[in-house]
Here is the input.
Amino acid sequence: MKTSNLHTLKARYVFPVTTRPIADGMVTIDGWRIAAVGKGPAGGGQFEDLGNVAILPGLVNAHTHLEFSNLSEPLGEPGMRFIDWIRRVIEFRLEAPTRGPVAAGLRESLQLGITTLGDIAQPGRPVKQTEDAGPDTTVFLELIAPTAERVAATVELARQHVAAARSSASWHPGLSPHAPYSVHPELLGRAVSLSAAEHVPIAFHLAESPDELELLRSGSGPFRDLLEQLETWNAGTILPNTRPLDYLRTLVNAHRTLIVHGNYLDDEEIAFLADHADRMSVIYCPRTHAYFAHEAYPLQKMLSVGVAVALGTDSRASSPDLSILAETRFVANKYPTVGRDVVLQLGTIRAATALGRDHQLGSLEPGKFANLAIVALPNRNAADPYELLFNSNEPVVATWYRGVKLATSRVAYQ
Here is the structure.
């Protein structure tokens, strides 16, 4: 092996994710890929002992909305009703600045050790905001068409979005037919077909609130009142006695599907997702879920039956920051019976799998991208290295993106 480009990093612990943590572990980088992971360097080249830190794979945020990244605090108040929060979002979009938030969100993400994102983008957002900035981003174009008359134009936007990615190596295309109440069945079907034909993932918000379930079931309730006020209600969009399962049966035909939130999926729907875990994932946004004081999230149940679950931050409109490390710490504290190795996987390899990127990133393995999050560890001993990582407020102190160390400030978590 040539040694001139090798750079070996040593840490108190290395967390490969797919294997046990390694005490006094080392990661050797060759160019923009990982050359070796273990107890010793892969050869010559540069050597650097980072001290009392953990080396993790670059963290993966499977679901976010970077358009809200200029918010200093979430919209509304904790525990507010979801439909009231939607009103705040609409007001914010009418008044929000047109420049800055996406770039700010990308910078913040890198500072927080996040090297891969799944971001929901509004039509018309310049792709240049994502190009050449890092992290590695799958841009899910949000598709909204509650009536059949709007479907054709929306599908054309989707086709243009997918085509635009072919000329760029800096971002990946995804499609996001928004939610049951904003997407006509014809649009959903055509988006799924386009996903399958072009091999791009779909993200779909589903079972997010009790009011949404009431709307699906009866076509009535507070959600319908909101849609009528916004003049976006269309009786043909949702048939009577519809369930989230009806949408899952359509979405399973996509190339890959990310079910965003899934807060109120029932047992049959969870079983369906488990049966199709090879191409369907549920994206849990823990601190956003807590912000709305939803019923307890069925994380343990989902994991126990084999649902593919990954983590997202949603956005600064419902969460204090964009930190996936903070999300994993929240989960570790709230769900003590979930294995700590699994908790870390939710923000790394499982999130990479949800985006269809696990062959390149999400774990520390030779041949994968040299994306690393360097996390400070507390000055104490512990029998379990995961305790040092999760029972701590120590920050990310450095981020490596494709073999290059990026300037990183110590970002505090809330």
